[in-house]
Specification:
The structure holds 2 protein chains of 2 kinds. Chain A is an alpha/beta fold. Chain A has 4 helices and 16 strands. The radius of gyration of chain A is 19 Å and the shape is globular. Chain B starts with a strand and ends with a helix. Classes of the chains: A alpha/beta, B alpha/beta.
Amino acid sequence: MSEKIVSELQARPVLEPRIGSGCWSVDLAKGEAITLERDAHADMVLTGAGHEGGALCLTLEPYSRLNIVELVDQEGATTDLRISLLEGAECSVTQVVTASSNLRVEASLDGRFARFELGGAFILSANERGTVQVDVRHNVADCSSRTTFKGVASQSAVGKFSGLVYVAPDAQRTDSEQLSRNITLGEARIETLPQLEIYADDVKCSHGATVGQMNDEAVLYMRQRGLSLATAKRLQIEGFVSDVVLRSSTELCREAFIEALESKLEKL
Amino acid sequence: MLKVENLCASVGDKQILKGINLEVKAGEVHAIMGPNGSGKSTLASVLAGNEKFTVTDGKVEYEGENLLELNVEERSRKGLFLGFQYPVEIPGVTMANFMKIAVNEQRKAQGLEPLTAAEYLKLMREKSAIVELDPKLTSRAVNEGFSGGEKKKNEIFQMAMLNPKLAILDETDSGLDIDALRIVATGVTRLKREDNATVVITHYQRLLDYIVPDYVHVLYKGRIIYTGDKSLALKLEKEGYDWLINDYKEE
């Protein structure tokens, strides 16, 4: 994490259980319950992914908007995020993982017209282990959710993504999309388990999962333009995760993301 | 510049090139024509160093060096450019970023300092004008969502950026409408100098209206069976390959 950003954020630690608009830094290790006030627009940077593993429970009051960014670069980190979205609330989460870790995100869409969006990427090397579990629960009608998680594993790393989209019996007109896209290099393995559990009948739910290798033709193409094999591979992986890492909601952490990504790519 | 002697290459068990002889000198333009499946693209790939193909016999000398000992990127950095028949899409990697790395890799190989941001932007602007490439495309991912014409223009743009000594263009004209063909061909012609050479692989004579070749070679079943001047292309356009192929007995 870029020191500048961290120090700036730590200057205003979150202590109150209720927060309004602003930019907040939250230490996950503490395991807190925080409510974002009605109509507030806030940004939140998660730090210190907890070794203790306490869950951070967030409640988004009606029509509030929360943008969460998190860089997980500490070996053995655990993140447990539980988000409840009330009517018309919007939450966007971006997680970039570059170390062995265990991530869990549970988003409950508890009020109509709530929107949840998650973009994530894990990049693992050596013998790192990473698991990501995402549960999106459409408990009421008229909500939408988008989940895209990208995985890259090299050497003897193992990555695992499980994603569940649950649609309750009355959650009509749910609009949900879940995508898990992965690249493995060498002996690495990635498992992906996308699941849909739908009890309503008027819904639009799509999901997709792929695990593939590097595109050799693209590597050849780049080498023909003078890039070394290593650079070509690195560039391809960078391109693969860039839409997650560079999306507009990551403004706050972009520098830190890019820095972490670049140093990680060196190790693949 | 390039001297190919008895080049033989295979993919898997299949022998595709069966003894190619070809000499290209600085300042020359060579056209390679021939029916489908005769080995034209394989020749281009083998010269570029694609490891999918195995060279089973023969020699290739490029600028006094044994080309076959160099890998793909070394050949590129020494000024060999291959314009791909099917340019590859690279999601998430912008053209501008990709070319910046490519240009600087080449400069590094030549012992030059990397370009500054301003120099690079200037170069990009200058070169994209040669092929009338929409400057906006350089901020998009490499070839992603480009039309067929844009992809081919983009190949020539990259050629202009890298300023190769030897450019091999593999069916750069295929899939182009008349305007795009003119733009691409004019671009190639504008990049022609006394000290560089171009090998164009094509099916159609019309490209050669713009890029006037010094030699036209006909490749058939892995060998160059006939070499002529630019009038050969016209004759082939009218009469097809049959008259040549009938003359040619496979050994």
